[in-house]
């Protein structure tokens, strides 16, 4: 932090006083410049014995929930939901409330280091001036050889880097986050573009629906905006005096969402598309609508044969859906991670049009936010460029590709071919340790920024970040580092980015919002800025979602890919699913490790879910360590006999198996990314949904710390 | 402090039809109440310190199987089995909040109370669990940090009740319904947990508790729990 205080800043700071409310403050502990005051007038963030609350945004996943952080004597104490925020309305998930364990994590990187790719002998701490020179020289290299790999959050950094690469003539930044792959986000976007004519994420009004079909969309756990959807789920169940929503979930392994459903239909992985198509046909027939040609040739018997669901059941469910007054079909997750995933998504989106719920309560709307897509295909292309030695400088921020990407993609080998890798990681994750330099960014609770709310809000919304504590260590905002480096590059580049620092850049990006009709406005940016921080963002005062203007079904008959045939008893479908560790970055939060898994109650480890009948046939018991092999690699994990999974399917949770990331994450469990394929569906999303695996007992045993045994405290243990 | 008319009877209602089993309540509770994490081995020994645990029970047979979730915290019994067995009055009933409190600095660790609690709601600190620097920075100064040999449990976030009551008193008004929320209630994304004054028939918690879906855990023991559950899986009138 600089200790200069210009006249303009002084006026700005003193002007803020008027706008500051009693509870939420717009002026933070890092109001950019130090203000010295006598003890009798303590800074508001340090009033002994009194709490100060700051509104900010949770960055544990990209959904953008509003948080209010209670601080005391300059320490972040508890994280609570922001009651006014349109995404979460004061609610939070387990990841959000434990975010302090990231901020105060003892394994954080405390200053810029020359890492020398993990070569401990050459590693040394450097100063920020040296770091800036490194970045400046890196940016001065031939533009087509520069690459940026960014995470799904924060958006302001993505915007800044996008503008920078455009100015420098470098390729646009690539964004990736494992959660977006598990969500099937790219497939959903592409399906929305083809069906509704607009490339934007649909908003599914679960709260007002009565019969809901969900294909693989695990919206109670991780999908798009889990807190917003869980909130809607509560209303779906008990929010209306006379109606209780009825949820049917189709997936091979019972997720938490399916566990809460009224009916869980364990279909065979890979049969989602034909099942979605046959529902289209049956529902259209039941409602007396013309059946579009793509679905008219699909027979119930073919769908039943592919999915393993009886014809009678399929007809009964179609009848239920067709007869409902507010039916809703939600495609997502593992259902889209199949060869025919795009067809599944299109069929299900169109199914909503067949029952005429577009733009209706309990139906499908389009969200207004622009999507800066995160795309697996783009990552694949980047890896190809790296392997071909076409990338000389790689900047990585907010993503841990060595952990999150399928091992078979060969990111590690590709990384070795990049002469200069600069990581902005706050934690010593796998990728940071394999970089040349780590120039640590502030952690989210120490940062400024914004995130565009994509999917969880019923209105246009920007969510704001502000520091709730003074940065603990010698870290620096990545946007500041890049801006300073660009400034050093010389006239042309510097002119394109005249901003003094990150905050000025964000303020400039907020200018259009002043006149955009939000629930507050201000005559100029500085007052607007203080309200922006005070409220935790900007959004419209009323719900504002558009209905899709059109709905186009898939045109011609579709050659459905049949589900992969298995050698019975030898081969199994392998499902990888994210749990409360999200993209794996949650594994260094000890309370998330200690938190029991929803379904299995296992803590601190990985497991493989096997149906008890299958386990018996294979002679496996709980806690037996088995080796799961696919054509792409193998992992080892303890068996958990899981009664709610197809007997021909096994499942491993994602998020554990770190080889780095600090004391609580390291050396725990296995990383199923090592057994994932690299194939993509028609929309470019990873097809992780029907990997075929084999199980090999290792003869070892490793007991899992399950909380469910507490129930049997006088029996089992 | 302004005179209270009658002590509020704080109660919690858990709507199991809304509850998804997401465990946000456990995480929020742990961060608010300075609950230490104990690590894999200790959890495996059944020594995890969950003031609130989610009882997950498999119901049915494949394929018609699903988990039933039931978050269980201290039931704040009106007739609490843990109280009469404590030799040092560490487990006492508070006049003011009408809840069952744990007085940590009285506790000598006999564990009689845990043995007598039918709900497994009491947790024992078998060891000291140090938070490495600087992780101790997030410790909530309103809640005592317990040490080895001390029994602990859910207090309905009594520090939040006191704070809310003092705030209302300072502003010269009554505590409003919904103003005071324990950490679990505040976090619950599905709105399954509702907290309030159950002596006031108009409070949201009282209204919800008058439901045909209502039941209490081990009602037949006569412990008079202050936590009411609403059965999930459908409507039963009310």
Automatic annotation (TrEMBL), chain A:
Matching PROSITE patterns: 4FE4S_MOW_BIS_MGD, PROKAR_LIPOPROTEIN, TAT
Alphabetic keyword roster: 4Fe-4S, Iron, Iron-sulfur, Metal-binding, Molybdenum, Oxidoreductase, Signal
Keyword Nucleus listed: no
InterPro entries, per database record: Asp_de-COase-like_dom_sf, MoPterin_dinucl-bd_dom, Mopterin_OxRdtase, Mopterin_OxRdtase_4Fe-4S_dom, Prok_Mopterin_Oxidored, TAT_signal, TAT_signal_bac_arc
Superkingdom field: Bacteria
Cited Pfam families: Molybdop_Fe4S4 (PF04879), Molybdopterin (PF00384), Molydop_binding (PF01568)
Gene Ontology molecular functions: 4 iron, 4 sulfur cluster binding; metal ion binding; molybdopterin cofactor binding; oxidoreductase activity
SUPFAM superfamilies: ADC-like, Formate dehydrogenase/DMSO reductase, domains 1-3
Start and end residues of each 4Fe-4S Mo/W bis-MGD-type domain: 51-107
PANTHER family recorded: TETRATHIONATE REDUCTASE SUBUNIT A, TRIMETHYLAMINE-N-OXIDE REDUCTASE
Family: Belongs to the prokaryotic molybdopterin-containing oxidoreductase family.
NCBIfam families linked to this entry: TAT_signal_seq
Protein's name in the database: 4Fe-4S Mo/W bis-MGD-type domain-containing protein
From TrEMBL, chain B:
Coiled-coil features, chain-numbered ranges: none
GO terms, molecular function: 4 iron, 4 sulfur cluster binding; metal ion binding
Pfam families: Fer4_7
Keywords noted in UniProt: 4Fe-4S, Iron, Iron-sulfur, Metal-binding
Domain named 4Fe-4S ferredoxin-type: residues: 10-40, 65-97
PROSITE patterns associated with the record: 4FE4S_FER_2
Keyword Transcription: no
Keyword Transmembrane helix: no
Protein name per UniProt: 4Fe-4S ferredoxin
Species the sequence originates in: Bellilinea caldifistulae
């Amino acid at each position: 932090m600089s200790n200069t205080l210009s006249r303009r800043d002084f006026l700005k700071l003193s002007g803020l006083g008027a706008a500051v409310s009693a509870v939420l403050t717009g002026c933070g502990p890092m109001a950019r410049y130090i203000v010295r005051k006598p003890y009798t007038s303590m800074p508001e963030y340090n009033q002994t014995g009194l709490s100060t609350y700051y509104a900010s945004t949770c960055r544990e996943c990209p959904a953008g929930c509003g948080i209010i952080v209670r601080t005391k004597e300059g320490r972040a104490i508890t994280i609570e939901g922001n009651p006014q925020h349109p995404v979460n309305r004061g609610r939070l998930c387990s990841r959000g409330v434990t975010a302090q364990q990231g901020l105060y994590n003892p394994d954080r990187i405390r200053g810029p280091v020359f890492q020398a790719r993990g070569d401990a002998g050459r590693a040394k701490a450097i100063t920020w001036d040296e770091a800036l020179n490194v970045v400046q020289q890196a940016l001065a290299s031939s533009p087509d050889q520069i690459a940026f790999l960014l995470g799904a959050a924060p958006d302001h950094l993505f915007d800044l880097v996008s503008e920078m690469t455009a100015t420098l003539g470098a390729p646009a930044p690539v964004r990736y986050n494992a959660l977006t792959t598990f969500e099937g986000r790219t497939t959903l976007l592409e399906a929305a573009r083809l069906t509704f004519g607009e490339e934007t994420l649909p908003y599914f009004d679960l709260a007002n629906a009565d019969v809901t079909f969900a294909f693989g969309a695990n919206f109670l756990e991780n999908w798009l905006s889990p807190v917003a959807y869980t909130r809607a789920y509560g209303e779906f169940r008990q929010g209306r005096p006379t109606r209780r929503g009825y949820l049917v979930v189709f997936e091979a392994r019972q997720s938490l969402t399916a566990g809460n459903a009224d009916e869980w239909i364990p279909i065979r992985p890979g049969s989602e598309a034909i099942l979605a198509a046959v529902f289209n046909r049956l529902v259209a027939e039941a409602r007396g609508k013309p059946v579009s040609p793509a679905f008219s040739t699909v027979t119930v018997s073919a769908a039943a044969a592919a999915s393993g669901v009886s014809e009678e059941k399929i007809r009964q469910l179609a009848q239920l859906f067709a007869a409902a007054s507010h039916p809703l079909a939600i495609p997502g997750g593992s259902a889209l991670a199949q060869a025919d995933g795009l067809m599944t998504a299109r069929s299900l989106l169109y199914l909503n049009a067949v029952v005429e719920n577009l733009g209706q309560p309990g139906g499908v709307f389009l969200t207004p936010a622009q999507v800066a897509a995160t795309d697996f295909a783009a990552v694949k292309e980047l890896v190809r460029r790296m392997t071909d030695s076409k990338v000389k400088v790689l900047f990585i921020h907010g993503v841990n590709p060595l952990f999150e990407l399928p091992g078979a993609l060969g990111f590690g080998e590709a990384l070795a071919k990049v002469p200069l890798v600069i990581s902005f990681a706050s934690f010593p994750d796998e990728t940071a340790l394999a970089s040349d330099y780590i120039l640590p960014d502030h952690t989210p609770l120490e940062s400024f920024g914004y995130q565009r709310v994509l999917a969880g809000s019923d209105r246009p919304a920007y969510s704001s970040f502000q520091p709730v504590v003074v940065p603990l260590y010698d870290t620096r905002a990545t946007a500041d580092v890049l801006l300073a480096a660009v400034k050093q590059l010389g006239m042309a580049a510097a002119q394109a980015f005249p901003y003094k620092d990150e905050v000025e850049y964000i303020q400039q990006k907020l200018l259009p919002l002043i006149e955009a009709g939000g629930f507050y406005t201000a005559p100029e940016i500085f007052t607007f800025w203080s309200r922006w921080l005070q409220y935790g963002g900007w959004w419209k005062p009323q719900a504002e979602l558009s209905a899709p203007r059109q709905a186009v079904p898939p045109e011609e008959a579709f050659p459905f890919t049949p589900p992969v045939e298995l050698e019975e008893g030898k081969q199994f479908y392998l499902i990888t699913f994210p749990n409360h560790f999200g993209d794996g970055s949650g594994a260094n939060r000890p309370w998330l490790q200690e938190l029991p898994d929803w379904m299995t109650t296992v803590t601190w480890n990985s497991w493989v879910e096997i149906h008890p009948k299958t386990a018996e046939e294979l002679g496996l018991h709980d806690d037996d360590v088995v080796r799961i092999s696919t054509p792409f690699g193998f992992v080892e994990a303890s068996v958990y006999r899981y009664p709610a999974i197809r007997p021909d399917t096994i499942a491993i949770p994602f998020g554990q198996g770190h080889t780095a990331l600090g004391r609580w994450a390291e050396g725990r469990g296995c990383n199923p990314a090592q057994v994932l394929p690299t194939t993509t569906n028609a929309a470019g999303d990873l097809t992780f949904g029907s990997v075929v695996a084999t199980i090999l007992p290792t003869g070892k045993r490793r007991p899992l710390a399950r909380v469910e045994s507490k129930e049997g405290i006088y029996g089992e243990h | 402090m302004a005179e209270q008319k009658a002590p509020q009877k704080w109660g919690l209602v858990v709507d199991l039809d809304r509850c998804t089993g997401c465990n946000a309540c456990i995480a929020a509770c742990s961060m608010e109440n300075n609950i230490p994490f104990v690590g894999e081995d200790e959890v495996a020994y059944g020594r995890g310190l969950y003031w609130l645990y989610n009882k997950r029970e498999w119901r049915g047979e494949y394929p018609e199987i699903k988990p039933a979730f039931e978050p269980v915290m201290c039931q704040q019994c009106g007739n609490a089995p843990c109280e009469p067995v404590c030799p040092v009055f560490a487990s006492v009933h508070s006049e003011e909040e009408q809840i069952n409190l744990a007085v940590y600095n009285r506790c000598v660790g006999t564990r009689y109370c845990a043995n007598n609690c039918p709900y497994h709601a009491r947790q024992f600190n078998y060891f000291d669990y140090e938070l490495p620097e600087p992780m101790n920075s997030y410790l909530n100064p309103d809640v005592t940090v317990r040490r080895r040999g001390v029994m602990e449990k859910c207090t309905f976030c009594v520090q939040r009740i006191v704070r809310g009551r003092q705030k209302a008193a300072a502003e010269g008004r009554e505590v409003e319904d919904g103003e005071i929320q324990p950490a679990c209630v505040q976090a619950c994304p599905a709105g399954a947990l509702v907290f309030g004054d159950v002596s006031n028939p108009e409070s949201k918690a009282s209204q919800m508790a008058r439901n045909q879906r209502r039941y209490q855990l081990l009602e037949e023991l006569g412990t008079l729990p202050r936590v009411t559950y609403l059965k999930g899986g459908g409507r039963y009138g009310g």
